[in-house]
Amino acid sequence: MQRPQHGGPAASYGVYCDMLATSQRYPFDRHPCWSDDRRSVWARIHLPVARRCNVKCTYCDHNQDSACHIPRPGRAARVMTPEEAVERALKEIRARPDLRIVAVAGPGEPLANPETFETLGRLHALAPTMKGCISTNGLALEENVERLVGLGVETVTVSMSALSPGVAAHVYEWVTVGGQRLRGLRAGREMVRRQLRGMGRAVTAGLHVKVNSVLIPGVNEADIVLLAARLAEVGVCLHNVIPLVPCGSLADRVPPTGQELQRIRALCARYVRQFHHCAQCRSDVVGVPGASDTVL
Fold it and tell me: Is residue 111 over pLDDT 80?
């Protein structure tokens, strides 16, 4: 199956992604965060080696047991060293025949921590048949794509909840770029620009890209739909709209209802395939999300 040229018509990407999904090729056949067939998915392990974060989301309080994603989903009881993470991963791989995916998803931003690359590199050398996976806010994705490919990463999930800089300014309290902390419209503009460029480069490199968007009532309902259309143009194959879990500056914000969530997903589905099985999991678990997860 030939992948469309990056930058081509959005429709061609949609056809490609639908063909990939219906043909049951990886990651749509086995990855638990991509597949609609929950009967045959592999287990995955999230290794919590990323302590630092380069972005402050409004729905995160930056506690150690929180992630830059959302507070309970993405949390970790503690941060492991690369040595501890590799040892635990190899132990789990030996014990679980269905464990085929090794991922780093937090609790901070994986690409802002050298421990992420050290951990994935060691595991790629010791267990080269494992599928590598990463979750990121996308700020530093563009300059790390080739490095991730070399470490055996095949799937990338980008947390992106806004397309317009004005809305992004309400999603991110600050963004750190080149040692400088940006706020407001400047932060929103730089964040969106870097996320889109990073995803484009990842798609060009042959990585499968999924986007997680946190639905924040009163902030980004309309913008997420516009984002979905843009994601199709970039070449993103899967979109996962998830409900806000109130925390941080948005601790008092009311999360979306199930009906509101489904309405936005239906609108986004006009542009890019939607994922409906997200368990908003921790960054220190092993198993199948929503079915057999065990905290490390």
Answer: yes
Mean pLDDT computed over 87-106: 96
Rounded alpha-carbon distances, angstroms, from residue 124 to 115, 119, 132, 145, 164: 14, 9, 8, 16, 37
The overall longest dimension of the chain from CA atoms, in Å, is 49
143: which DSSP letter? G
Instruction: Indicate the domain borders of the chain.
Output: 11-288
Alpha helices in 35-183 (DSSP H): 82-95, 114-126, 145-150, 165-171
pTM, full prediction: 0.90
What whole-number distance in Å separates Cα of residue 98 and Cα of residue 270?
34
Structure-token pair, residue 88: 């635990």
Q: How far apart, in whole angstroms, are the C-alpha atoms of residue 285 and residue 288?
A: 9
Q: How many angstroms from the chain centroid is the CA of residue 47?
A: 14
**11-288 is classed in which CATH architecture?**
Alpha-Beta Barrel (3.20)
CA dihedral (133, 137, 140, 143) positive or negative: positive
- Residue-wise pLDDT tens digits, 166-196: 999 999 999 999 999 999 999 999 999 999 9
Distance, CA of 184 to CA of 166 (rounded, Å): 8
Rounded-to-integer distance, Cα 152 and Cα 150, Å = 6
Q: What is the pLDDT of residues 201-225, one digit of tens each?
A: 999 999 999 999 999 999 999 999 9
Contact predicate 151/127, CB 8 Å = no
Are 235 and 273 contacting, i.e. CB atoms less than 8 angstroms apart?
no
Residue 122 CA from chain centroid, whole number: 22
